[in-house]
Amino acid sequence: MNLKLDRARAFLFDLDGVLTDTSELHFKAWRQLAEELGLTFTREDNEALRGVSRRASLDLLLKGKPCSEQQAAAWMDLKNDYYLELVEQMTPQDLLPGTLDVLWMLRERGIKTAIVSSSKNARLVVERLKLGRWVDELIDGNAPVPSKPAPDLFILAAQRLGVQAGECVVVEDAEAGIEAARAGGMQCVGLGPQQRVGQADLVCQNLVELRSFLQIYQPV
Ligand code: BG6
Ligand code: MG
Predict the structure, then answer these.
(1) For ligand 1, is residue 52 a contact (CB within 6 Å)?
(2) Does the model's pTM come out above 0.85?
(3) pLDDT for residue 220
(4) Do 171 and 70 share a structural domain?
(5) Looking at residue 197, which CATH number applies to its domain?
(6) Residue 140 C-alpha to ligand 1 middle, in angstroms?
(7) Which residues surround ligand 2, an ion (CB under 5 A)?
(8) What are 117-126's pLDDT values in tens digits?
């Protein structure tokens, strides 16, 4: 455990897989497309797509099957339509346990918060979850900067919040997100199994465990 919270002034939360389990919805949408293309796409295959951009996800799904850029764009649109149908059914019940407790605890301690997602649909998901008023900033995949694993989305969030990179703690469930945080000079909490998020400064199973950690760790 290398995490040091003495300097922390902001927490930057990934959305998909951290505050809500949309990876299941992405899985269902990609699987529907895969079935139509006659491809196999399993839950294990889906794990490799965690935190990966839409375009890179399509490449992983196609497993080398050739396609033109025009065809790729059409397939991505189709997958996104399936995904949006599922997002429409989301409610605040879909927040992962511990989400509001952690956000509330940070606010009480004067720590700023942002949601920082590679997803172009993040704003809609945040609306469905009624989460907007719980955070200070939302940066999504529509920002005109490279996506994770590049650090740019996190750096943009720090700028918007008026804090230095070294004062930010990122909370991520994906390897690509942890890589982005590190590249940006930020500390990182990884949520999930050690083999996936072991590069983080602190590994927790979920937000409930992170909340317990924050409760015990007083210098914040
Ligand atoms: C990330 C998800 O947050 O956003 C990925 O973890 C997803 O699974 C990526 O592919 C892009 O999302 P979207 O909604 O723009 O296709
Ligand atoms: Mg994620």
Answers:
(1) yes
(2) yes
(3) 45
(4) no
(5) 3.40.50.1000
(6) 10
(7) 14, 16-17, 51, 173-174
(8) 999 999 999 9
Choosing from 6, 14, 101, 140, the catalytic residue is 14
Does ligand 1 come within 6 angstroms of the Cβ of 121? yes
Mapped onto helix, strand or coil, the DSSP state of residue 103 is helix
Which residues are bridge partners to 138 per DSSP? 115
Say if ligand 1 is within 6 A of residue 54 CB. Answer: yes
Q: Which domain holds residue 203?
A: 10-21+93-216
- Those residues with Cβ within 8 angstroms of residue 196's Cβ, 6 or more apart along the chain or in another chain: 47, 50, 173, 174, 175, 190
Strands (E), 70-146: 112-116, 137-139
Q: Are residues 98 and 110 in the same domain?
A: yes
Catalytic residue at 14?
Answer: yes
For ligand 1, is residue 147 a contact (CB within 6 Å)? no
Q: Report whether residue 53 contacts ligand 1, using a CB cutoff of 6 Å.
A: yes
Classify residue 137: in a domain, yes or no: yes
Our separate counts of H helices and E strands in the chain read 10, 6
Sheet containing strand 137-139, strands side by side:
137-139, 112-116, 10-13, 168-172, 187-191, 202-204
Q: 48-75 pLDDT, tens per residue?
A: 898 888 999 999 999 888 899 999 999 9
Mutate to test the pocket of ligand 1, among 12, 118, 153 (most ligand atoms within 8 A of CB): 118
Question: Is there a single domain that holds both residue 29 and residue 123?
Answer: no
Structure tokens that stand for 154 in this block: 């996190």
Known catalytic residue at 173: no
d(CA 19, CA 42): 23
